[in-house]
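Annex B.
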Amino acid sequence: MFGLWSTFTSMVFYVTLAVGLGGLVANGLVLWHLGLHIKKGPFSVYVLHLAAADFLFLGCQVAFSVVRAALGSEDTLYFIVTFVGFAAGLWLLAAFSLELCLSELFPACYEGRRPRHTSGVVCGLLWALTPPAVLLPAHACGLLRGGTRLGACVRYHAASIAWLLSLACVACGASLVLALWVACCSQRPRPRLHGVVLVSGLLLFLCGLPYVLYWSLRPLLNFLLPVFHPLAALLACVHASTRPLIYFSVGRRPGRRQPLPVVLQRALGDGAQLGAGGLSLPLGAI
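MAS related GPR family member G: predicted structure tokens.
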């Protein structure tokens, strides 16, 4: 039985490592092309920051997994730092999905009245708020090599759970509302990012929520189901690694191969144009 368990954990470890490395490459390509070769529109700014959050999460997951395997020990600090990247991606996905949903539900109020740098300001605020939202409950509960303060731990951790579940509900709910609105009520052409938000919400529900559940019930799950953490980490890596594939799938056209900047430009479809270093597409070709 011990040999079977060791084989299973080793298999999960190597699969997680492979998925994480593949996701690092894919998100790195998105960061490179979207950050340097494509002029960003309001929604592609969210995509850029989502790719950065996923890259951070996958990089920490891969690096700490290798360190843990080499040293043969696990430090709670590894999980906390990794979870910061995951939480940032969850917050950014919720903001991205909600804003795209509102832009389709209320186009008259949205178009022409949105401040130019709203996306950048929102992403900056989310990046600034995420570390305290993760580190405060971790410190209060003694996960950062400090003493445990029971009362503060309960309060901070309950607030953290409510915050994470609210973000997940916003992301999944906005994608569902957008799908129903586009399918049943809207008379406008289907937005290109509709498929990206819908699949991202579905992936969050299937692959991201187990990681949130592990954060919420970590001591209990470690005691009752030791296998839960490696499986939740694997699913979270799948969630972070699959998003670039969604962009490439949405932007790809059958026929001859096209440069990745062109594919990303078509997938985003929010009026962004390629910068001086890349190609240029007319908006009608998107």
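The mean pLDDT is 82. The chain is about 75% helix and 0% strand. Further annotation is deferred to the next reporting cycle.
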